[in-house]
Amino acid sequence: MIRVLLAEDMHMVRGALIALLNLEPDIEVVAEVSSGDRIVPTARHHSPDVCVIDIDLPILDGLTAAATIRETMPQIRTLMLTSLGRPGTLRRALAARVDGFLLKDAPPSELAEAIRRVNAGERVVDSKLALAAWDRGECPLTDRELEVLRLAANGTDAPDIAVALSLSAGTVRNYLTTIMTKLNGRNKVDAIRIAEEAGWL
């Protein structure tokens, strides 16, 4: 029997997934959580074989929880679910060394099969997402440009970014202009959106 921990914040979705998975003869949902901060302690308590985790969870995101599981309980496999088929999200998931990545609109039979394959030690990645991530290419921004853009994405203005990074405000504005040019963004907000969708932030 494959023991599963399910992390999903939408109650109806979580209930439906539990009901569907418990119909499988070799899968049992032994624990459920609705927020990311509960994943690691619940996994420690129940020792599931596979954690099925929604990427977008309140309090702590699913990828951060999955990375912690990988570091502290490497025997537990992680399968990420997302409703957003962004190539950048897949790249972030692979960087966190999750074992599987599946879109939420996949058929229930596909989820059950993914759980079995992940439990058997395979890596499972949605094929359409894998192709899109392959096609997207590398981030064109330097590490310093990414630092500036991350701070801007958090709502920090140019003078405060300058203080945080020990730069002049003019240099920060130059960085932001370069970033917008490289990402082909109409403005700073558009550049942040492009970088977030590509998984570069």
Automatic annotation (TrEMBL):
InterPro entries for the chain: CheY-like_superfamily (IPR011006), Sig_transdc_resp-reg_C-effctor (IPR016032), Sig_transdc_resp-reg_receiver (IPR001789), Tscrpt_reg_LuxR_C (IPR000792), WalR-like (IPR039420)
HTH luxR-type domain location: 133-199
In-chain residues carrying the UniProt-annotated modification 4-aspartylphosphate: D54
GO biological process: phosphorelay signal transduction system; regulation of DNA-templated transcription
Signal sequence range: none
SMART domains in the record: HTH_LUXR, REC
Pfam families assigned to the protein according to its UniProt record, in alphabetical order: GerE (PF00196), Response_reg (PF00072)
PROSITE patterns with a match to the protein in the record: HTH_LUXR_2, RESPONSE_REGULATORY
Residue intervals of the Response regulatory domain: 3-119
UniProt superkingdom: Bacteria
UniProt keyword terms in alphabetical order: DNA-binding, Phosphoprotein
UniProt GO molecular function: DNA binding
Name of the protein: Two-component system, NarL family, response regulator DesR
